[in-house]
Amino acid sequence: MMGSRSSRLLAASIFTTAMLAGMGAAQAGGCRGSACYNLVTSPPVYGSIDETVQVRPGRTQHRVVPAEYETVTDTVMIAPERRIPHYRSPVYETVTEKVMISGPGRRWDVSRDAYGNMVGCWVEVPAQYGYRSRRVEVSPASVDYQTVPAVYTQRQRKVMVRPTEVVREEIPAVYETRQRQVLVSPGAQYWSRARY
Questions:
Q1: 110 beta partners
Q2: Digitized pLDDT (tens) for each residue of the chain, 196 residues in all
Q3: What Cα–Cα distance (Å) separates residue 77 from each residue in 27, 62, 89, 120, 151?
Q4: Which helix (H) or strand (E) holds 86?
Q5: What is residue 116's DSSP assignment?
Q6: What would the DSSP string read from start to end of 17-52?
Q7: What's the DSSP call for residue 173?
């Protein structure tokens, strides 16, 4: 397209030069009627085209995402299970029982009769009994154990469920469509035959 445009300009230039030479000759000899040419100038023609231009380049940015935490409830033992001993003392009672103090027997007994004479004889002596108290154990000593259950409580603690991370984000370039004025055809000069 540019080659054909250059060719047209070259041809117009040659034609103009020739016409100027002819006009000089015509003026010298006097130009009348259809033998005269007028120099015509046509202005350049401009148009608008749409073109896409980058108004902001693409870039990479890094964004820090903070760590996330959650509250967790744990059950913890604050006192273990234990056994408390309860001691019981032995139980005693007093028992009274009849016992023989001395067994039966005979003894020689001397006495005087009605006449004052000494008389001796054997006398039967029965057994002698009495009562004696003693302490006896009715129930022996013992130990009973009481079981106290463990004591628990709930405690809360903060745990990290996701660590801090750096996120890479790609931000694309930004483009805009703008109009630009361009030369569609350049201005030209040419000779046109005069009408009168």
A1: 120
A2: 434 444 444 444 444 444 444 444 444 445 665 678 888 898 999 888 888 999 899 999 999 999 999 999 999 999 999 999 999 999 999 999 988 888 888 888 888 888 888 888 888 889 898 888 999 998 999 999 999 999 999 999 999 999 999 999 999 999 999 888 888 888 888 888 877 5
A3: 126, 46, 35, 96, 6
A4: strand 82-88
A5: S
A6: HHHHHHHHHHHHH---GGG-EEEEEE--EEEEEEEE
A7: P
pTM to 2 decimal places: 0.35
Tokens representing residue 174 in the block: 């930004």
Contacts for 76 with CB less than 8 Å, ≥ 6 apart: 152, 153, 154, 155
Instruction: Please give the structure tokens belonging to residue 135.
Output: 């302490």
Token pair listed for 166: 């750096």
Please give the sequence-ordered ranges of beta strands (E in DSSP) within 80-150, or none if there are none: 82-88, 91-102, 105-112, 118-125, 128-139, 142-148
Q: Return the CA Rg of the chain.
A: 74
**In 36-50, which positions are buried (b, 16+ CB within 10 angstroms) versus exposed (e)?**
bbeeeeeeeeeeeee
CA distance 79 to 149: 9
Joined together, the tokens standing for residue 62 give 């890094």
Burial annotation 83-119 (CB, 10 A radius, 16+ → b, else e): eeeeeeeeeeeeeeeeeeeeeeeeeeeeeeeeeeeee
